[in-house]
UniProtKB/TrEMBL annotation, chain B:
InterPro entries: NIF_FeS_clus_asmbl_NifU_N. This is SUF system NifU family Fe-S cluster assembly protein. GO terms for molecular function: iron ion binding; iron-sulfur cluster binding. NCBIfam families: SUF_scaf_2. One of its GO terms (biological process) is iron-sulfur cluster assembly. Gene3D superfamilies: 3.90.1010.10. Residues 6-129 form the NIF system FeS cluster assembly NifU N-terminal domain.
Length: 421, 154
Protein backbone atom coordinates (compact mmCIF):
# COMPACT_ATOMS: atom_id res chain seq x y z
CA UNK A 1 0.00 0.00 0.00
CA UNK A 2 2.70 2.45 1.06
CA UNK A 3 4.77 1.46 -1.94
CA UNK A 4 1.80 2.05 -4.25
CA UNK A 5 1.17 5.42 -2.70
CA UNK A 6 4.77 6.50 -3.06
CA UNK A 7 5.00 5.13 -6.59
CA UNK A 8 2.17 7.48 -7.50
CA UNK A 9 3.93 10.38 -5.84
CA UNK A 10 1.24 10.71 -3.19
CA UNK A 11 2.06 12.10 0.24
CA UNK A 12 1.16 10.34 3.45
CA UNK A 13 -2.10 12.25 3.77
CA UNK A 14 -3.24 10.18 6.72
CA UNK A 15 -0.38 11.63 8.75
CA UNK A 16 -0.65 15.11 7.26
CA UNK A 17 -4.39 15.39 7.88
CA UNK A 18 -3.83 14.86 11.61
CA UNK A 19 -2.20 18.29 11.65
CA UNK A 20 -5.36 19.98 10.33
CA UNK A 21 -8.10 19.97 12.98
CA UNK A 22 -10.79 21.32 10.67
CA UNK A 23 -10.45 18.40 8.27
CA UNK A 24 -12.03 16.17 10.92
CA UNK A 25 -15.15 18.29 11.04
CA UNK A 26 -18.56 16.96 10.28
CA UNK A 27 -20.90 19.31 8.46
CA UNK A 28 -24.67 19.25 7.99
CA UNK A 29 -24.94 17.04 11.08
CA UNK A 30 -23.12 13.93 9.95
CA UNK A 31 -21.31 14.55 6.70
CA UNK A 32 -17.55 14.25 6.60
CA UNK A 33 -16.08 17.47 5.30
CA UNK A 34 -14.51 17.14 1.84
CA UNK A 35 -12.66 20.41 1.46
CA UNK A 36 -11.99 21.15 -2.20
CA UNK A 37 -11.81 24.94 -2.09
CA UNK A 38 -8.08 25.30 -1.56
CA UNK A 39 -7.61 27.81 -4.34
CA UNK A 40 -9.81 30.18 -2.33
CA UNK A 41 -8.07 29.51 0.95
CA UNK A 42 -6.14 26.63 2.46
CA UNK A 43 -6.72 25.12 5.87
CA UNK A 44 -4.36 25.83 8.74
CA UNK A 45 -2.19 23.22 10.44
CA UNK A 46 -1.81 23.01 14.19
CA UNK A 47 1.82 24.14 13.87
CA UNK A 48 0.73 27.49 12.44
CA UNK A 49 -2.04 27.91 14.99
CA UNK A 50 0.46 27.16 17.77
CA UNK A 51 2.98 29.67 16.44
CA UNK A 52 0.35 32.42 16.42
CA UNK A 53 -0.90 31.50 19.88
CA UNK A 54 2.59 31.37 21.29
CA UNK A 55 3.37 34.73 19.78
CA UNK A 56 0.42 36.32 21.57
CA UNK A 57 0.89 34.37 24.79
CA UNK A 58 4.60 35.05 25.18
CA UNK A 59 6.03 37.68 22.85
CA UNK A 60 3.41 40.20 21.77
CA UNK A 61 4.83 43.70 21.28
CA UNK A 62 5.18 46.23 18.54
CA UNK A 63 8.18 45.69 16.30
CA UNK A 64 11.24 47.83 15.58
CA UNK A 65 10.67 50.11 18.54
CA UNK A 66 11.17 49.83 22.22
CA UNK A 67 14.11 48.23 23.96
CA UNK A 68 12.24 45.87 26.21
CA UNK A 69 12.41 42.11 26.00
CA UNK A 70 9.07 41.58 24.31
CA UNK A 71 9.76 44.22 21.68
CA UNK A 72 13.04 42.59 20.83
CA UNK A 73 11.50 39.13 20.72
CA UNK A 74 8.61 40.29 18.55
CA UNK A 75 11.01 42.00 16.19
CA UNK A 76 13.18 38.91 15.98
CA UNK A 77 10.15 36.75 15.23
CA UNK A 78 8.79 39.14 12.61
CA UNK A 79 12.15 39.55 10.88
CA UNK A 80 12.78 35.84 11.29
CA UNK A 81 9.64 35.19 9.29
CA UNK A 82 11.05 37.42 6.57
CA UNK A 83 14.20 35.29 6.51
CA UNK A 84 12.14 32.12 6.19
CA UNK A 85 10.13 33.48 3.29
CA UNK A 86 13.23 34.82 1.54
CA UNK A 87 14.73 31.38 1.74
CA UNK A 88 11.47 29.69 0.65
CA UNK A 89 11.41 31.68 -2.61
CA UNK A 90 15.20 31.73 -3.04
CA UNK A 91 15.38 35.52 -2.85
CA UNK A 92 18.93 36.84 -3.20
CA UNK A 93 18.33 39.14 -0.25
CA UNK A 94 15.92 39.18 2.69
CA UNK A 95 15.50 42.92 2.12
CA UNK A 96 13.64 42.12 -1.09
CA UNK A 97 10.74 40.57 0.83
CA UNK A 98 7.98 43.06 1.64
CA UNK A 99 5.08 42.06 3.84
CA UNK A 100 1.66 43.25 2.69
CA UNK A 101 -1.81 42.19 3.72
CA UNK A 102 -2.45 40.01 0.66
CA UNK A 103 -1.50 39.53 -3.00
CA UNK A 104 -3.96 42.22 -4.07
CA UNK A 105 -2.11 44.75 -1.95
CA UNK A 106 1.20 43.56 -3.41
CA UNK A 107 -0.10 44.11 -6.95
CA UNK A 108 -1.62 47.47 -6.07
CA UNK A 109 1.61 48.51 -4.41
CA UNK A 110 3.61 47.96 -7.59
CA UNK A 111 0.98 49.67 -9.75
CA UNK A 112 1.20 52.69 -7.47
CA UNK A 113 5.00 52.67 -7.34
CA UNK A 114 5.07 52.83 -11.11
CA UNK A 115 2.44 55.55 -11.30
CA UNK A 116 4.52 57.81 -9.05
CA UNK A 117 7.96 56.75 -10.26
CA UNK A 118 10.45 58.85 -12.16
CA UNK A 119 11.91 57.76 -15.45
CA UNK A 120 12.75 55.16 -16.59
CA UNK A 121 9.96 53.36 -14.69
CA UNK A 122 7.21 55.92 -14.89
CA UNK A 123 3.93 54.79 -16.45
CA UNK A 124 2.34 57.70 -18.32
CA UNK A 125 0.21 58.44 -21.36
CA UNK A 126 2.89 57.42 -23.84
CA UNK A 127 3.33 54.00 -22.33
CA UNK A 128 1.60 50.65 -22.22
CA UNK A 129 0.74 48.09 -19.57
CA UNK A 130 0.32 44.42 -20.52
CA UNK A 131 -1.73 41.80 -18.67
CA UNK A 132 -3.65 38.70 -19.80
CA UNK A 133 -7.29 37.74 -20.15
CA UNK A 134 -6.93 35.02 -17.51
CA UNK A 135 -5.97 37.31 -14.63
CA UNK A 136 -7.72 37.38 -11.30
CA UNK A 137 -9.48 40.72 -10.85
CA UNK A 138 -6.66 41.65 -8.48
CA UNK A 139 -4.27 41.68 -11.43
CA UNK A 140 -6.68 43.55 -13.72
CA UNK A 141 -8.26 46.32 -11.71
CA UNK A 142 -5.05 47.87 -10.25
CA UNK A 143 -3.73 48.22 -13.80
CA UNK A 144 -7.02 49.61 -15.08
CA UNK A 145 -6.83 52.20 -12.31
CA UNK A 146 -3.24 53.01 -13.20
CA UNK A 147 -4.13 53.28 -16.90
CA UNK A 148 -7.09 55.54 -16.17
CA UNK A 149 -5.07 57.78 -13.91
CA UNK A 150 -2.02 58.10 -16.14
CA UNK A 151 -3.51 57.77 -19.63
CA UNK A 152 -1.41 54.68 -20.30
CA UNK A 153 -2.83 52.04 -22.60
CA UNK A 154 -3.84 48.67 -21.13
CA UNK A 155 -3.27 45.69 -23.41
CA UNK A 156 -3.62 41.96 -22.85
CA UNK A 157 -2.92 38.52 -24.20
CA UNK A 158 -6.00 36.55 -25.21
CA UNK A 159 -6.67 32.88 -24.55
CA UNK A 160 -6.83 29.80 -26.75
CA UNK A 161 -9.83 27.49 -26.77
CA UNK A 162 -7.77 25.06 -24.70
CA UNK A 163 -7.37 27.55 -21.89
CA UNK A 164 -3.79 28.56 -22.61
CA UNK A 165 -2.31 32.00 -23.21
CA UNK A 166 -2.29 32.97 -26.87
CA UNK A 167 1.22 34.34 -27.30
CA UNK A 168 1.14 34.19 -31.13
CA UNK A 169 1.16 38.01 -31.30
CA UNK A 170 3.61 38.55 -28.46
CA UNK A 171 5.70 41.05 -30.45
CA UNK A 172 2.65 43.24 -31.09
CA UNK A 173 1.37 43.03 -27.51
CA UNK A 174 4.70 43.69 -25.79
CA UNK A 175 6.36 46.63 -27.56
CA UNK A 176 8.95 49.33 -26.96
CA UNK A 177 6.19 51.29 -25.24
CA UNK A 178 5.51 48.56 -22.68
CA UNK A 179 6.53 49.53 -19.16
CA UNK A 180 5.26 46.52 -17.28
CA UNK A 181 3.98 43.05 -18.08
CA UNK A 182 2.01 41.49 -15.23
CA UNK A 183 0.66 37.97 -15.48
CA UNK A 184 -0.42 35.02 -13.43
CA UNK A 185 1.86 32.02 -13.07
CA UNK A 186 -0.97 29.56 -12.41
CA UNK A 187 -4.52 30.64 -13.15
CA UNK A 188 -6.96 30.45 -10.26
CA UNK A 189 -9.87 29.63 -12.56
CA UNK A 190 -8.39 27.68 -15.47
CA UNK A 191 -5.56 26.05 -13.57
CA UNK A 192 -3.26 26.83 -16.47
CA UNK A 193 0.45 26.96 -15.67
CA UNK A 194 1.76 29.73 -17.91
CA UNK A 195 5.09 29.78 -19.75
CA UNK A 196 7.27 32.39 -18.07
CA UNK A 197 10.44 32.32 -20.13
CA UNK A 198 8.97 33.46 -23.44
CA UNK A 199 7.18 36.40 -21.86
CA UNK A 200 10.16 37.44 -19.74
CA UNK A 201 12.50 37.24 -22.74
CA UNK A 202 10.27 39.52 -24.83
CA UNK A 203 9.77 41.94 -21.92
CA UNK A 204 13.50 42.15 -21.34
CA UNK A 205 14.05 42.78 -25.06
CA UNK A 206 11.96 45.95 -24.86
CA UNK A 207 13.10 46.95 -21.37
CA UNK A 208 9.75 46.33 -19.68
CA UNK A 209 9.43 45.21 -16.07
CA UNK A 210 7.79 41.86 -15.32
CA UNK A 211 5.46 41.14 -12.43
CA UNK A 212 4.23 37.64 -11.66
CA UNK A 213 1.14 36.82 -9.63
CA UNK A 214 2.22 33.62 -7.91
CA UNK A 215 -0.79 33.34 -5.56
CA UNK A 216 -1.72 29.91 -6.91
CA UNK A 217 1.90 28.85 -7.42
CA UNK A 218 3.70 29.60 -4.16
CA UNK A 219 1.51 27.16 -2.19
CA UNK A 220 1.87 24.32 -4.64
CA UNK A 221 5.34 24.16 -6.21
CA UNK A 222 8.93 25.15 -5.57
CA UNK A 223 9.09 28.89 -6.25
CA UNK A 224 12.44 30.36 -7.20
CA UNK A 225 12.21 34.07 -7.91
CA UNK A 226 15.70 34.09 -9.39
CA UNK A 227 14.85 31.34 -11.86
CA UNK A 228 11.66 33.17 -12.87
CA UNK A 229 13.77 36.23 -13.76
CA UNK A 230 10.84 38.50 -13.01
CA UNK A 231 11.17 41.89 -11.32
CA UNK A 232 8.27 41.48 -8.90
CA UNK A 233 6.48 38.43 -7.54
CA UNK A 234 3.29 38.59 -5.47
CA UNK A 235 1.58 35.94 -3.37
CA UNK A 236 -0.60 35.58 -0.32
CA UNK A 237 -0.24 33.70 2.95
CA UNK A 238 -3.66 32.19 3.51
CA UNK A 239 -3.52 30.03 0.39
CA UNK A 240 -0.30 28.39 1.64
CA UNK A 241 -1.36 27.22 5.10
CA UNK A 242 -0.79 30.62 6.67
CA UNK A 243 -3.29 33.00 8.24
CA UNK A 244 -5.25 35.67 6.39
CA UNK A 245 -3.98 39.25 6.50
CA UNK A 246 -0.47 38.54 5.30
CA UNK A 247 0.84 38.74 1.75
CA UNK A 248 4.24 39.07 0.16
CA UNK A 249 5.75 41.24 -2.50
CA UNK A 250 9.18 40.23 -3.65
CA UNK A 251 11.00 42.83 -5.74
CA UNK A 252 14.51 43.18 -7.11
CA UNK A 253 16.60 45.23 -4.73
CA UNK A 254 17.72 47.96 -7.15
CA UNK A 255 14.11 48.56 -8.14
CA UNK A 256 12.99 48.77 -4.54
CA UNK A 257 15.75 51.30 -3.94
CA UNK A 258 14.73 53.43 -6.95
CA UNK A 259 10.95 53.26 -6.72
CA UNK A 260 8.98 55.62 -4.47
CA UNK A 261 6.97 54.50 -1.46
CA UNK A 262 3.19 54.36 -1.68
CA UNK A 263 1.82 54.31 1.85
CA UNK A 264 3.43 56.77 4.23
CA UNK A 265 3.56 56.51 8.00
CA UNK A 266 5.51 55.12 10.88
CA UNK A 267 8.10 52.45 10.26
CA UNK A 268 8.82 53.51 6.66
CA UNK A 269 10.77 56.66 7.48
CA UNK A 270 14.33 57.60 8.30
CA UNK A 271 13.81 61.18 9.50
CA UNK A 272 10.71 63.33 9.51
CA UNK A 273 10.44 67.09 9.71
CA UNK A 274 7.39 69.23 9.11
CA UNK A 275 8.62 70.04 5.62
CA UNK A 276 9.82 66.71 4.35
CA UNK A 277 10.91 63.21 5.20
CA UNK A 278 13.48 60.70 4.14
CA UNK A 279 12.69 57.05 3.91
CA UNK A 280 13.97 53.87 5.43
CA UNK A 281 15.58 51.43 3.04
CA UNK A 282 13.51 48.59 1.59
CA UNK A 283 11.70 46.56 2.75
CA UNK A 284 10.65 48.98 5.50
CA UNK A 285 10.12 51.79 2.99
CA UNK A 286 7.07 49.87 1.80
CA UNK A 287 5.75 48.75 5.18
CA UNK A 288 4.13 51.83 6.69
CA UNK A 289 2.50 51.44 10.07
CA UNK A 290 2.45 48.50 12.46
CA UNK A 291 2.76 45.46 10.22
CA UNK A 292 0.80 42.19 10.49
CA UNK A 293 3.20 40.72 13.04
CA UNK A 294 1.46 37.57 14.25
CA UNK A 295 0.35 36.90 10.69
CA UNK A 296 3.94 37.05 9.48
CA UNK A 297 4.95 34.70 12.29
CA UNK A 298 2.14 32.37 11.21
CA UNK A 299 3.27 32.49 7.61
CA UNK A 300 6.80 31.72 8.72
CA UNK A 301 5.49 28.61 10.49
CA UNK A 302 3.52 27.66 7.36
CA UNK A 303 6.65 27.93 5.25
CA UNK A 304 8.50 25.75 7.76
CA UNK A 305 5.73 23.19 7.53
CA UNK A 306 5.79 23.14 3.73
CA UNK A 307 9.58 23.04 3.60
CA UNK A 308 9.71 20.12 6.01
CA UNK A 309 7.52 18.13 3.62
CA UNK A 310 9.34 19.50 0.57
CA UNK A 311 7.72 21.56 -2.16
CA UNK A 312 8.82 19.09 -4.82
CA UNK A 313 6.86 16.41 -2.96
CA UNK A 314 3.85 18.71 -2.59
CA UNK A 315 3.97 19.29 -6.34
CA UNK A 316 4.23 15.58 -7.11
CA UNK A 317 1.29 14.82 -4.81
CA UNK A 318 -0.89 17.43 -6.45
CA UNK A 319 0.11 16.30 -9.92
CA UNK A 320 -1.04 12.80 -9.03
CA UNK A 321 -4.31 14.02 -7.53
CA UNK A 322 -4.96 16.41 -10.43
CA UNK A 323 -4.24 13.73 -12.98
CA UNK A 324 -6.67 11.37 -11.27
CA UNK A 325 -9.28 14.12 -10.91
CA UNK A 326 -9.11 15.11 -14.58
CA UNK A 327 -9.47 11.47 -15.59
CA UNK A 328 -12.44 10.87 -13.28
CA UNK A 329 -14.19 14.17 -14.04
CA UNK A 330 -14.04 13.58 -17.78
CA UNK A 331 -16.05 10.39 -17.19
CA UNK A 332 -18.95 12.39 -15.72
CA UNK A 333 -21.60 12.84 -18.44
CA UNK A 334 -22.11 16.44 -19.64
CA UNK A 335 -19.09 17.67 -17.69
CA UNK A 336 -16.87 20.15 -19.53
CA UNK A 337 -13.56 21.21 -18.06
CA UNK A 338 -12.95 24.93 -18.56
CA UNK A 339 -9.18 25.13 -18.96
CA UNK A 340 -6.64 22.49 -19.91
CA UNK A 341 -8.37 19.11 -19.97
CA UNK A 342 -5.11 17.36 -19.14
CA UNK A 343 -2.85 17.27 -16.11
CA UNK A 344 0.02 18.75 -18.12
CA UNK A 345 1.19 22.31 -17.41
CA UNK A 346 -1.64 22.92 -15.01
CA UNK A 347 -2.18 23.42 -11.32
CA UNK A 348 -4.56 21.70 -8.95
CA UNK A 349 -7.60 23.91 -9.53
CA UNK A 350 -10.10 22.43 -11.98
CA UNK A 351 -13.09 24.44 -13.20
CA UNK A 352 -15.96 22.82 -15.00
CA UNK A 353 -19.54 23.13 -16.10
CA UNK A 354 -22.09 20.35 -15.73
CA UNK A 355 -24.60 20.44 -18.57
CA UNK A 356 -27.05 23.29 -18.08
CA UNK A 357 -27.04 23.02 -14.31
CA UNK A 358 -25.95 26.35 -12.88
CA UNK A 359 -22.79 26.16 -10.75
CA UNK A 360 -24.65 27.70 -7.83
CA UNK A 361 -26.98 24.74 -7.83
CA UNK A 362 -24.11 22.32 -8.31
CA UNK A 363 -22.29 23.82 -5.32
CA UNK A 364 -25.40 23.78 -3.15
CA UNK A 365 -26.12 20.10 -3.72
CA UNK A 366 -22.45 19.23 -3.24
CA UNK A 367 -22.41 21.20 0.00
CA UNK A 368 -25.32 19.21 1.29
CA UNK A 369 -23.07 16.16 0.92
CA UNK A 370 -20.26 17.88 2.81
CA UNK A 371 -18.26 18.74 -0.30
CA UNK A 372 -16.93 22.30 -0.34
CA UNK A 373 -16.23 23.73 -3.80
CA UNK A 374 -16.21 27.26 -5.16
CA UNK A 375 -18.85 28.40 -7.60
CA UNK A 376 -19.11 31.62 -9.56
CA UNK A 377 -16.70 33.49 -11.76
CA UNK A 378 -13.80 33.17 -9.29
CA UNK A 379 -12.88 36.85 -9.54
CA UNK A 380 -11.97 36.20 -13.16
CA UNK A 381 -15.09 37.26 -15.00
CA UNK A 382 -13.31 37.95 -18.32
CA UNK A 383 -12.48 34.24 -18.48
CA UNK A 384 -16.15 33.33 -18.18
CA UNK A 385 -17.00 35.84 -20.91
CA UNK A 386 -14.24 34.41 -23.11
CA UNK A 387 -15.68 30.92 -22.87
CA UNK A 388 -19.29 32.02 -23.04
CA UNK A 389 -20.31 30.71 -19.65
CA UNK A 390 -21.90 32.52 -16.70
CA UNK A 391 -19.82 30.78 -14.07
CA UNK A 392 -18.05 27.55 -13.22
CA UNK A 393 -17.79 25.08 -10.42
CA UNK A 394 -14.21 24.74 -9.23
CA UNK A 395 -12.62 21.95 -7.25
CA UNK A 396 -9.11 22.69 -6.01
CA UNK A 397 -6.75 20.37 -4.21
CA UNK A 398 -3.86 20.63 -1.82
CA UNK A 399 -1.30 18.53 -0.03
CA UNK A 400 -3.92 16.92 2.22
CA UNK A 401 -6.32 16.05 -0.62
CA UNK A 402 -6.86 12.35 -1.28
CA UNK A 403 -8.01 10.20 -4.20
CA UNK A 404 -11.00 9.26 -2.03
CA UNK A 405 -12.01 12.93 -2.00
CA UNK A 406 -11.87 12.98 -5.79
CA UNK A 407 -14.17 9.94 -5.75
CA UNK A 408 -16.51 11.74 -3.33
CA UNK A 409 -16.66 14.69 -5.71
CA UNK A 410 -17.47 12.49 -8.70
CA UNK A 411 -20.17 10.64 -6.73
CA UNK A 412 -21.48 13.99 -5.55
CA UNK A 413 -21.74 15.24 -9.12
CA UNK A 414 -23.75 12.16 -10.05
CA UNK A 415 -26.12 13.08 -7.25
CA UNK A 416 -26.35 16.63 -8.62
CA UNK A 417 -27.27 15.26 -12.04
CA UNK A 418 -29.95 13.05 -10.50
CA UNK A 419 -31.33 15.95 -8.49
CA UNK A 420 -31.70 18.30 -11.45
CA UNK A 421 -32.17 15.59 -14.10
CA UNK B 1 -33.26 16.41 3.88
CA UNK B 2 -32.63 20.13 4.21
CA UNK B 3 -31.92 20.56 0.53
CA UNK B 4 -35.54 19.81 -0.28
CA UNK B 5 -36.60 22.80 1.78
CA UNK B 6 -34.66 25.01 -0.62
CA UNK B 7 -35.38 23.19 -3.84
CA UNK B 8 -39.14 22.85 -3.49
CA UNK B 9 -40.82 21.20 -6.46
CA UNK B 10 -42.62 24.41 -7.23
CA UNK B 11 -39.25 26.19 -7.56
CA UNK B 12 -37.80 23.48 -9.79
CA UNK B 13 -40.97 23.60 -11.92
CA UNK B 14 -40.63 27.33 -12.44
CA UNK B 15 -36.94 26.87 -13.22
CA UNK B 16 -37.56 24.20 -15.83
CA UNK B 17 -40.66 25.85 -17.29
CA UNK B 18 -40.33 29.59 -16.70
CA UNK B 19 -43.38 31.79 -17.08
CA UNK B 20 -43.24 34.94 -19.18
CA UNK B 21 -39.59 34.60 -20.09
CA UNK B 22 -38.26 36.58 -23.05
CA UNK B 23 -37.96 40.31 -23.61
CA UNK B 24 -40.98 42.21 -24.87
CA UNK B 25 -41.75 45.91 -25.25
CA UNK B 26 -41.39 47.91 -22.08
CA UNK B 27 -41.29 51.43 -20.63
CA UNK B 28 -37.97 50.81 -18.94
CA UNK B 29 -35.22 48.20 -18.99
CA UNK B 30 -32.66 47.38 -16.33
CA UNK B 31 -29.79 44.95 -16.14
CA UNK B 32 -28.91 43.64 -12.70
CA UNK B 33 -26.10 41.31 -11.75
CA UNK B 34 -25.19 39.40 -8.65
CA UNK B 35 -21.43 39.98 -8.64
CA UNK B 36 -20.64 37.16 -6.25
CA UNK B 37 -21.96 34.44 -8.52
CA UNK B 38 -22.55 35.90 -11.95
CA UNK B 39 -26.34 35.68 -12.03
CA UNK B 40 -27.67 38.24 -14.48
CA UNK B 41 -31.07 39.49 -15.47
CA UNK B 42 -32.33 41.97 -18.03
CA UNK B 43 -35.84 43.01 -17.11
CA UNK B 44 -38.42 45.29 -18.72
CA UNK B 45 -41.63 46.67 -17.27
CA UNK B 46 -44.60 48.06 -19.14
CA UNK B 47 -47.22 50.06 -17.31
CA UNK B 48 -50.76 50.85 -18.29
CA UNK B 49 -51.35 53.76 -15.96
CA UNK B 50 -50.62 52.32 -12.55
CA UNK B 51 -51.38 48.78 -13.69
CA UNK B 52 -48.48 46.47 -14.55
CA UNK B 53 -49.17 45.48 -18.14
CA UNK B 54 -46.09 43.28 -18.50
CA UNK B 55 -42.84 42.23 -16.86
CA UNK B 56 -40.54 40.55 -19.35
CA UNK B 57 -37.07 39.25 -18.68
CA UNK B 58 -34.10 37.37 -19.97
CA UNK B 59 -31.29 36.13 -17.80
CA UNK B 60 -28.88 33.49 -16.82
CA UNK B 61 -28.33 32.15 -13.42
CA UNK B 62 -29.08 29.47 -10.92
CA UNK B 63 -32.42 27.75 -10.44
CA UNK B 64 -33.31 30.03 -7.54
CA UNK B 65 -32.73 33.28 -9.45
CA UNK B 66 -34.51 32.08 -12.57
CA UNK B 67 -37.45 30.52 -10.76
CA UNK B 68 -37.85 33.70 -8.75
CA UNK B 69 -38.15 35.76 -11.94
CA UNK B 70 -40.80 33.37 -13.23
CA UNK B 71 -42.77 33.61 -10.00
CA UNK B 72 -42.47 37.39 -10.10
CA UNK B 73 -43.97 37.45 -13.56
CA UNK B 74 -46.87 35.29 -12.40
CA UNK B 75 -47.55 37.40 -9.36
CA UNK B 76 -47.13 40.95 -10.58
CA UNK B 77 -48.44 41.13 -14.13
CA UNK B 78 -51.93 42.58 -14.11
CA UNK B 79 -51.63 43.96 -10.60
CA UNK B 80 -51.90 47.56 -9.58
CA UNK B 81 -48.61 49.14 -8.49
CA UNK B 82 -49.66 49.50 -4.84
CA UNK B 83 -50.60 45.86 -4.60
CA UNK B 84 -47.40 44.80 -6.38
CA UNK B 85 -45.35 46.82 -3.90
CA UNK B 86 -47.10 45.06 -1.04
CA UNK B 87 -46.24 41.68 -2.57
CA UNK B 88 -42.65 42.78 -3.11
CA UNK B 89 -42.42 43.99 0.48
CA UNK B 90 -43.81 40.73 1.82
CA UNK B 91 -41.41 38.68 -0.31
CA UNK B 92 -38.50 40.81 0.90
CA UNK B 93 -39.58 40.29 4.50
CA UNK B 94 -39.73 36.52 3.96
CA UNK B 95 -36.35 36.38 2.25
CA UNK B 96 -34.66 38.44 4.95
CA UNK B 97 -36.11 36.29 7.72
CA UNK B 98 -33.13 33.89 7.91
CA UNK B 99 -35.58 31.01 8.01
CA UNK B 100 -37.32 32.41 11.11
CA UNK B 101 -40.61 33.28 9.43
CA UNK B 102 -43.00 30.40 8.93
CA UNK B 103 -45.39 31.63 6.24
CA UNK B 104 -48.94 31.78 7.58
CA UNK B 105 -52.15 31.77 5.57
CA UNK B 106 -52.17 35.53 5.18
CA UNK B 107 -48.65 35.50 3.80
CA UNK B 108 -49.44 32.60 1.54
CA UNK B 109 -52.41 34.45 0.16
CA UNK B 110 -50.19 37.37 -0.80
CA UNK B 111 -47.23 35.39 -2.08
CA UNK B 112 -48.87 32.31 -3.62
CA UNK B 113 -46.07 30.22 -5.25
CA UNK B 114 -43.45 32.58 -3.82
CA UNK B 115 -43.88 31.12 -0.32
CA UNK B 116 -41.89 28.18 -1.65
CA UNK B 117 -38.82 30.40 -1.30
CA UNK B 118 -39.11 30.37 2.51
CA UNK B 119 -36.49 27.61 2.66
CA UNK B 120 -34.06 29.67 0.61
CA UNK B 121 -33.99 32.34 3.31
CA UNK B 122 -31.97 29.94 5.48
CA UNK B 123 -29.09 30.14 3.03
CA UNK B 124 -27.58 33.64 3.16
CA UNK B 125 -25.57 33.11 -0.03
CA UNK B 126 -28.74 32.34 -1.96
CA UNK B 127 -31.02 35.13 -0.73
CA UNK B 128 -29.48 37.49 -3.26
CA UNK B 129 -30.30 35.02 -6.03
CA UNK B 130 -33.95 34.97 -5.01
CA UNK B 131 -34.11 38.76 -4.76
CA UNK B 132 -32.28 39.58 -8.01
CA UNK B 133 -35.37 39.88 -10.23
CA UNK B 134 -37.38 41.62 -7.51
CA UNK B 135 -34.75 44.31 -7.07
CA UNK B 136 -34.57 44.64 -10.84
CA UNK B 137 -38.35 45.07 -10.99
CA UNK B 138 -38.26 47.73 -8.28
CA UNK B 139 -35.53 49.61 -10.13
CA UNK B 140 -37.26 49.31 -13.51
CA UNK B 141 -40.52 50.51 -12.02
CA UNK B 142 -38.84 53.55 -10.51
CA UNK B 143 -37.40 54.38 -13.91
CA UNK B 144 -40.59 53.73 -15.82
CA UNK B 145 -42.55 55.97 -13.49
CA UNK B 146 -39.77 58.54 -13.38
CA UNK B 147 -38.96 58.28 -9.71
CA UNK B 148 -35.20 57.92 -9.91
CA UNK B 149 -32.32 58.20 -12.34
CA UNK B 150 -31.31 55.19 -14.41
CA UNK B 151 -29.18 52.71 -12.57
CA UNK B 152 -27.20 49.96 -14.26
CA UNK B 153 -26.58 47.49 -11.51
CA UNK B 154 -27.38 46.80 -7.92
Amino acid sequence: MTQTREAHGLLDTEAIRKDFPVLDRLVHDDRKLVYLDNAATSQTPRQVLDAITEYYERHNANVHRGVHVLAEEATALYEGARDKIASFINAPSRDEVIFTKNASESLNLVANMLGWADEPYRVDSDTEIVITEMEHHSNIVPWQLLAQRTGAKLKWFGLTDEGRLDLSNIDEVITEKTKIVSFVLISNILGTHNPVEEIVRRAQEVGALVMIDASQAAPHMPLDVQALQADFVAFTGHKMLGPTGIGVLWGRQELLEDLPPFLGGGEMIETVSMNSSTYAPAPHKFEAGTPPISEAVGLGAAVDYLSAIGMDKVLAHEKAITSYAVERLLQVPDLRIIGPATAEERGAAISFTLGDIHPHDVGQVLDEQGIAVRVGHHCARPVCLRYGIPATTRASFYLYSTPAEVDALVDGLEHVRDFFG
Amino acid sequence: MKLDSMYQDVILDHYKHPHGRGLRDGDAEVHHVNPTCGDEITLRVRYDGSRIADVSYEGQGCSISQASASVLNDLLVGKDLAEAQKIQGTFLELMQSKGQVEPDDAMEEVLEDAVAFAGVSKYPARVKCALLSWMAWKDATAQALGESPRKETA
